[in-house]
């Protein structure tokens, strides 16, 4: 178990390039166990790249990332350990279309964790109950609404019982009426004490759920703070302008 005083995620001077383009510029960020961090900022500011570096979906060029006491490198042993502790929910759901909901959920626990079919199914049903769609277990993703598919994706991540959940704009592909149902599930997860890093423009959710707000622009973390502080008196002009644009949209 992590020492509660030690960050469960620590990023030190992390930089990331795509060719000549610098997506992350000397990023420093600590996330503590049970903390809910919301990352916001304009398109192209590096938000998604930052969280994709945490589970090595993108490899950073310089700096250091430590996740739950393990330094993130290309070493397969380290990578497997970190990915076992870090779940990720994507913008586009990323469900296997040829598998039923229950098979999408049991695949990881069976293959990666070595659970028996019965135990994997029992765990899958537990998390489908948690996201309030146990009745959809035998359907295929195409038979579900976008909101239901995203709730399946959240349940699939939970089936691996990670210590950290990353969300990459989880509601941006959804119709407005479906956004609320997904945010409700995420709010309940936050209340349960799950460590979460959420990239989102949903400022109402951020205000309600986040312990820490992080504002990024041009690959840099420009400002961090508690929601009540940054919403009422952002320190940087860039963040103030961004908030006005989002809240007036």
Give a description of the structure.
A 6-stranded mixed beta sheet has the order 6-7-8-3-9-10, with helices on both faces. A hairpin with a 2-residue loop joins strand 9 and strand 10. It has 9 helices and 10 strands. It has one domain: P-loop containing nucleotide triphosphate hydrolases (Rossmann fold), CATH 3.40.50. Helix 3 packs across helix 4, helix 4 packs across helix 5 and helix 5 packs parallel to helix 6.
- Poorly predicted tracts of residues: none
Structural class: alpha/beta
Q: How many distinct beta strands?
A: 10
Radius of gyration (Å):
18 Å
CATH fold category name: Rossmann fold
Sheet with most strands: 6 strands, mixed
Beginning-to-end CA distance, first to last residue: 43 Å
The tally of domains stands at: 1
Strand content: 15-25%
Supply the CATH architecture. 3-Layer(aba) Sandwich
What level of helicity do the residues show?
Answer: 25-40%
Mean pLDDT: 93
Shape: globular
Q: Spatial order of the strands in the main sheet?
A: 6-7-8-3-9-10
Helix count, DSSP H or I runs of 4 or more residues: 9
Organism: Yoonia ponticola
Family: Belongs to the ABC transporter superfamily.
Domain ABC transporter: 9-243
EC number: 3.6.3.-
